[in-house]
Amino acid sequence: MDPMKIQKTILLAVVILFSTVVKSQKLAIIPQPTEVKAGVGNFEITAKTGLKFDAGNKDLKRIAGFLSDHLKQYYKLDLKQTQSANDMIQLKLAPSEGLGKEGYKLNVNKNGILITASTPNGLYYGIQTLKQLLPVDSAASAAASAPVKVPYVEIKDQPRFSWRGMHLDCGRHFFPVSCIKKTLDEMVLYKLNTFHWHLTEDQGWRLEIRKYPKLTEIGSWRDETILDSKTNKYDGIGYGGFYTQDQVKEIVKYAADRFITIVPEIEMPGHSSAALTAYPELGCTGGPYQVAQKWGIFNDVFCAGNEQTFTFLEGVIDEVCELFPSQYIHIGGDECPKVAWKKCPLCQQRIKDEGLKDENELQSYFIRHMEKYLISKGRKLIGWEEILEGGLAPEATVMAWKRNTPAGSIAAKQNHDVIRCPATHCYLNYYQVKDIANEPPGYPGLLSLEKVYSFEPIPDDLKKEDAHFIKGAQACIWSEFISTTKNLEYSIFPRLCAMAEVVWSPVEKKDFNGFKERLGTDFQRLKMYKINYCDHPY
Ligand code: ACM
Ligand code: ZN
């Protein structure tokens, strides 16, 4: 080849390479996909572009509907169904080797946009990525005439973990159905698939149980709420709320339609003041008890020596299982003081009769009993890491949350599945910035965006061959100081975006600086979706 030609070829290659790099820098996908090959050019979605999918498949019909609604709402584009091979967005179910149950491929080229996956879940995640490829500048969303350009790209993507979760405490404060639905929508944007719904607490029982109506008649209301634990001031205002079974069914369906599993949590044996206020005969002293009006840990817990306690909890679980199809039922298990059990004749008798060593083993007896019941109903028990006390129930999954305990490794080494959510990295109720003067109320303490991003779910001390016991991780939101949807969103964002990258993206793709850059674009999206967020996290 003559030298001029070689020079020209090199120049061309450099230009192509450069434009590819520039293009790939513009992509702002969160969580970062497994594999992205940016192309040169854009496909433009117009009013003539069609939507292609098998309308005989009800999952596909539903998720095509979600995409279609999105394009209508934000881009004023009303796409019609098509059979054409050009100028279309196609959702296609097809075997996709190596991409698992939730993976997908997304190709954008001159012919259009093709999302392929072996399951509707995968297609749905492909749509979430596509949404992040659409323009976010306000012009595009405001004016029907603005071009909707989608950059050419080839993406292959699949999650790192199967449990990608968020927990929400609805006991300390009650969040209405509309807020729960919006929260589920927010999870979807970042490909999270598990909503851990904390439904019972000392400060309120939030789930209608038809067999035990006093749980909500009495247990869902507190007479007042502490304002300040230093001055011991209360607000003097009654507070409460609960979800009816019809509302729960509606929410469970809403979540399932979006490939989110709801794992309900019914706290036992501790954090049960509200239940005991409604049914005092289930406590060691017989009461009277009070739906808690302040925060903390309370000594009044379900009596482990009284057979009635188990009959009651099994009745509750029966209805919970009717409402929630999830494989897992969360039974709490955390922070159960043993004070009352130590003084209770029935609990002490139980310890003797069962040949138990101490109250820790009584806690283990309690959890094992509930696990047996759940297994008899075809379900699996999950509990906070305190279910390790006195020995783990045989098939229990452990949610490891404490700051300084290696519970995750301990459980995994015993061949138990583990979900990790250490408070140090996953509790989004802490403040996210140092200067809290102008921040909405939060939990004392700091959890920065960067720290969430730095979280690694596989503990250092776990052998490679045991790593598969770590099923994933989740963000947790405790609501002592969060009482409105607006403040809830503020504490979630943008830290949930960081958590999404922790649980979805390959570990070698993690890069905090790149993440921050992408987050800049994501903030515009959050604005477009009218989601509140903290805009000064670093
Ligand atoms: C917890 O934070 N008590 C699980
Ligand atoms: Zn007792």
Task: Offer a quick outline of the entry.
The chain is α/β, with parallel strands linked by helices. Helices cover 37% and strands 20% of the residues. It is built from 18 helices and 23 strands.
Topology of this protein?
Elements: H1 3-26, E1 35-45, E2 50-52, H2 58-75, E3 80-81, E4 88-93, E5 104-109, E6 112-117, H3 120-133, H4 138-142, E7 148-157, E8 163-169, H5 177-189, E9 194-198, E10 200-201, E11 204-205, H6 214-217, E12 221-222, E13 226-228, E14 233-234, E15 239-240, H7 245-257, E16 261-268, H8 273-278, H9 307-323, E17 328-332, H10 339-343, H11 345-353, H12 359-376, E18 380-384, E19 397-400, H13 407-413, E20 418-420, H14 423-426, E21 430-431, E22 443-446, H15 449-453, E23 470-477, H16 485-492, H17 495-504, H18 512-528
Parallel strand pairs: 2-3, 2-4, 4-6, 8-9, 8-23, 9-16, 16-17, 17-18, 18-19, 19-20, 20-23, 21-22
Antiparallel strand pairs: 1-7, 5-6, 5-7, 10-11, 12-15, 13-14
Helix pairs in contact: 2-3, 5-7, 9-12
The structure holds acetamide and zinc ion.
